[in-house]
């Protein structure tokens, strides 16, 4: 899978179950009408259950300058949630999910379905709003390296 180039995103949530954010490369558009996307979360982390419990999430597509955030939210440095979120400039989406202001694009989603496949839970969200920086580059992960496009 290391040869599968992928856009780098931060999946974030907040609500009654608490805040959670992690780096993901397994996400994609599902439908344009209604706008829907999916994110794959590893079931080995009990904290990932917060996405389902909160009923919302944001998918923040990282810009080329956000490698430090990608590394931190991937677990590098062993930072807790508060320390990770302290590294970025955040706002709250309509759903309450954290939106990264430097993201190339951020999708605010209402969780509409989940499904477990092998080691991952697929969460599916209807996009309620977007915030975009049209001139931002994108961060891509390929062969255990970060690249800006």
Automatic annotation (TrEMBL):
Pfam families per record: Flavin_Reduct
Biological processes annotated in GO: pyrimidine nucleobase catabolic process
Any GO molecular function: FMN binding
Alphabetized UniProt keyword annotations: Oxidoreductase
Start and end residues of each Flavin reductase like domain: 1-148
Listed name of the protein: Flavin reductase
Organism: Fulvimarina endophytica
Source taxonomy: Bacteria, Pseudomonadati, Pseudomonadota, Alphaproteobacteria, Hyphomicrobiales
């Amino acid at each position: 899978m290391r040869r599968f180039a992928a856009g780098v995103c931060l999946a974030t949530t907040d609500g009654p179950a608490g805040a959670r954010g992690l780096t993901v490369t397994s996400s994609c558009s599902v439908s344009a009408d209604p706008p829907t996307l999916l994110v794959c979360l590893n079931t080995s982390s009990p904290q990932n259950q917060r996405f389902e419990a909160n009923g919302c999430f944001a998918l923040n597509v990282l810009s080329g300058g956000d490698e430090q955030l990608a590394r931190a939210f991937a677990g590098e440095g062993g930072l807790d949630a508060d320390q990770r979120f302290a590294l970025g400039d955040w706002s709250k989406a309509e759903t309450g999910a954290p939106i990264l202001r430097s993201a190339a694009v951020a999708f605010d989603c209402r969780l509409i379905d989940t499904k477990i496949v092998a080691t991952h839970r697929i969460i599916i969200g209807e996009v309620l709003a977007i915030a975009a920086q049209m001139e931002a580059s994108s961060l891509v992960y390929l062969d255990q390296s970060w690249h800006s496009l």
